[in-house]
Amino acid sequence: MQIQFLADRPEVTPVIAQWYFEEWGRKNPENSVAAIHRRLRRETSREILPLQIIAIGEDGALLGTAQLKLREMTIFPERKFWLGGVYVSRQVRGRGIGAALVNRVIELAQRRAIPELWLQTYAKDGGLYARLGWIITDHLLYKGEEVTVMVRKINDGAP
Ligand SMILES: CC(C)(COP(=O)(O)OP(=O)(O)OC[C@H]1O[C@@H](n2cnc3c(N)ncnc32)[C@H](O)[C@@H]1OP(=O)(O)O)[C@@H](O)C(=O)NCCC(=O)NCCS
Question: How many other C-beta atoms lie within 10 A of the C-beta of residue 60?
Answer without folding.
Answer: 9
